[in-house]
Design brief:
- With 90 residues, the chain is mainly α.
- It has one domain (4-89).
- Helices cover 86% and strands 0% of the residues.
- It contains four helices and no strands.
- Helix 1 runs antiparallel to helix 2, helix 2 (34-50) packs antiparallel against helix 4 (66-89) and helix 3 (52-59) packs antiparallel against helix 4.
- The longest helix has 28 residues, at 4-31.
- The protein is elongated and about 45 Å long.
- The relative contact order is 0.17.
Length: 90
């Protein structure tokens, strides 16, 4: 069960993360550096994954268990981190 505080904090993380992603994407549009685009994509995936368990607890509570939603959240976060790593290495 997701508490009201968890839901509010998840919304705050999505808003702050979305703002950061917009800034990175605007920097990509000005400079056309592909690594900034990869960074924005990786951040999007990681921020979505970081709160997937909370989001699933609100929307999919009848269909997915807490443990399964945490595993899916981690499975979403890993590619996001790898994409950000790729953007830093490239």
């Amino acid at each position: 069960m997701v508490t009201n505080l968890e839901a509010i904090l998840a919304v705050v993380v999505y808003l702050l993360g979305g703002t950061f992603i917009i800034f990175v994407y605007e920097a990509y549009q000005r400079t056309h550096q592909k690594n900034l685009l990869y960074l924005a994509i990786g951040l999007f995936i990681m921020i979505f994954g970081s709160n997937f368990d909370t989001l699933a607890g609100i929307i999919l509570a009848d269909y997915i268990s807490v443990e399964a939603s945490k595993v899916v959240a981690l499975g979403i976060e890993i590619p996001g981190i790898l994409i950000m790593l790729y953007s830093a290495i490239k």
